[in-house]
Amino acid sequence: MAPERENTLRSALATSMMGLTALDIETLNNDENAWDAVVEEFDGYRQIWHKRGVMPMLRALMSARNIAENLLATAGGERRLTDILHISELLQEAGSQLESEHALVRWLAQHILEPDSNASSQQLRLESDKHLVQIVTIHKSKGLEYPLVWLPFITHFRVQDQAFYHDRHSYEAVLDLSHAEESIALAEAERLAEDLRLLYVALTRAVWHCSLGVAPLVRRRSDKKGETDVHQSALGRLLQKGEPMDAAGLRACIEALCDEDIVCRTPGNTDNDRWQIAAASHAELSARTLQRLLYDSWRVTSYSGLQQRGT
């Protein structure tokens, strides 16, 4: 807030966030021109704060001083960087409701002294989502890799009911308003081709493991034969060669592919009980007992006294 105050500015520059060494700061102390440049730089940050808010100011500071790079190069730097960005958001939000920069500083000091652990805004954010479960569409996953991949609804499909397709010779888009069976069949073939392309994308995202959820789906409610509609999906097209089968036939097709790399498992009964954290067991604490004798024979003496006792 006041870069002309040398002691305050030096204290800020000495923080680990800035990444300066003692030699860097000593060089600034002995170079008046370099110090004036730093004062002018931080005065620019103050102007950004006045005009645009505290978060744009902090972003400009972090960019100019390579603060993100400095932090990430240290142990625990990712955690610290996440906290700084989080605090900048909270300060920007609070600053819009306060009358001055001094009031914002007081607000921050008060929340440091009296934190509210129950406030959602004060909960620690995760440094990174690289170890979290990510839910993405197949379209979004194109070109990416994930250690483990689950495709729970890979047999889902949507039958093409609009006679919209591309001519096989001119490749022009065609919309047949008469809904002729031939046009519907061509549109359905295009739908299946696109689903097969997406299936390939989905199956090639995993690095170590890929799980597929396959269920004997039946869309035709009036069908009495027990045949499923899985054969109309992209995966069913590959498994059943486009032929309708019942649940047993579907399982047989899957088991025919099983080897040391492919395993087929049927889920058992699910447990509807909500998961709860196991109660922590607290062992009883006891103070250690002294196992040796203490000798309390001591005195206050001096060097001359030691000399006298030595003689």
Description:
With 311 residues, the protein is mostly helical. The chain has helices at 6-13, 22-29, 32-52, 54-65, 67-72, 77-95, 101-113, 138-141, 181-203, 234-240, 247-255, 303-310; strands spanning 146-151, 164-166, 173-175, 206-212. A hairpin with a 6-residue loop joins β2 and β3. The longest helix is centred in the middle third of the chain and has 23 residues, at 181-203. It starts with 5 loop residues before the first helix and ends with a helix. Residues 1-143 form the UvrD-like helicase C-terminal domain. It comes from Salmonella enterica I.
SSE inventory with pairings:
Elements (H helix, E strand, L loop, with lengths): L5 H8 L8 H8 L2 H21 L1 H12 L1 H6 L4 H19 L5 H13 L24 H4 L4 E6 L12 E3 L6 E3 L5 H23 L2 E7 L21 H7 L6 H9 L47 H8 L1
Parallel strand pairs: 1-4
Antiparallel strand pairs: 2-3
- Portion of residues in beta strands equals 5-15%
**Number of separate structural domains:** 2
Per the CATH scheme, the topology name of the largest domain is Rossmann fold
Strand order of the largest sheet: 1-4
Q: What is the 3D form?
A: elongated
- Main β-sheet, in a few words? 2 strands, parallel
C-alpha Rg (nearest Å): 35 Å
By CATH's scheme, which homologous superfamily of the largest domain applies? P-loop containing nucleotide triphosphate hydrolases
Low-confidence stretches: none
Q: Average pLDDT value?
A: 84
Number of helices: 12
Count of β-strands: 4
SS-based class: mainly alpha
Report the span from N to C terminus.
68 Å
Percentage of residues in helical conformation: 40-55%
Highest CATH level, the class of the largest domain: Alpha Beta
Run of helices and strands: HHHHHHHHEEEHEHHH
Instruction: Just name the CATH architecture of the largest domain.
Output: 3-Layer(aba) Sandwich
Pfam families: UvrD_C
Organism: Salmonella enterica I
InterPro entries: DNA_helicase_UvrD-like_C, DNA_helicase_UvrD/REP, P-loop_NTPase
GO cellular component, one term: cytosol
